[in-house]
Design goal:
By secondary structure, the protein is of the alpha/beta class. 33% of the residues lie in helices and 27% in strands. It folds into 2 domains: 164 residues, Rossmann fold (3-Layer(aba) Sandwich); 73 residues, no CATH class. The protein has a 6-stranded mixed beta sheet, sandwiched between helices. A 3-stranded antiparallel beta sheet has the order 2-1-4, with helices on one face.
């Protein structure tokens, strides 16, 4: 069953005195429920703009974007800059408590327990709640950002370059965490990345974007085994093999 259907989606940015810049040009694709779906391309290809549109953070010029029977808050985003996405003046516990309070997700008396549960779910000890972002590593901050998204009990996670700022061993742990959460929570995950080495480790299907358009799509294994577009072939030529790192313990 499709959980997301995108058809002829166009996204533009206004330019004073000039025609708008078309960042996404008539993109069409479907995402299945509980799928790990990759959106791949180099910087500037439109994939992050598309990711923001999927989370209603970016208006669209035309086309349709439809999620199947989703309550408010069921689509959550994990940002590339995990440290920057956290308020440096708030402890991790306060940041998570703010989500619970604003969206009235649990009574005040239950928040500390809920925060501890969320931290445990992403592999962090409960005492991290008392830490500030500057006291954590990049990988730990990314786990906190995942916990913050999970607080909303989402059905879809849109992960925009979630491991690009991390070293390879930490990348593997975060990818393993996302794969585990997908299984345990029956999540659908859209992984946006410029790095095919990352996408090939976890994704079921993918689209390859170039200059705002989809140039290739299909089952991940098939695309990697037999790329058809010259741009996909060029991306694959630069892919290092990180599969061994995925045996690392989360």
């Amino acid at each position: 069953m499709n959980i997301l259907s995108v058809k002829d989606l166009v996204i533009e940015y206004p330019r004073p005195g000039k025609p708008p810049f078309r960042a996404v040009k008539g993109v069409t694709f479907d995402v299945r429920e509980n799928e790990f779906f990759g959106i791949v391309g180099e910087s500037g290809c439109g994939k992050s703009t598309l990711a923001k549109a999927l989370c209603r953070l970016q208006p669209v010029a035309s086309g349709t974007l439809a999620f199947a029977h989703m309550p408010r808050g069921a689509v959550q985003m994990i940002f590339q800059d995990a440290v920057g996405s956290l308020n440096p003046r708030k402890t991790i516990g306060d940041a998570l408590a703010e989500v619970l309070a604003v969206h009235r997700l649990c009574p005040p008396a239950d928040r500390a327990g809920r925060i501890a549960t969320l931290l445990d779910e992403v592999g962090l000890p409960a005492d991290v709640a008392g830490a500030y972002p500057r006291e954590l590593s990049g990988g730990q901050c990314q786990r906190v950002s995942i916990a913050r998204a999970l607080a909303m009990d989402p059905r879809v996670l849109v992960a925009d370059e979630p491991v690009s700022a991390l070293d390879v061993s930490v990348q593997a742990r975060v990818l393993n965490l996302l794969a585990d959460l997908r299984s345990r929570r029956n999540l659908t995950i859209l992984l946006i990345s410029h790095d095919l080495a990352v996408v090939r480790t976890v994704c079921d299907r993918l689209i390859v974007m170039h200059a705002g358009e989809i140039v290739e799509r299909g089952e991940a294994k098939a695309v990697f085994a037999n790329p058809r577009h010259a741009y996909t072939k060029a991306l694959l030529a630069a892919v290092p093999d990180v599969s061994a790192a995925l045996t690392a313990t989360p």
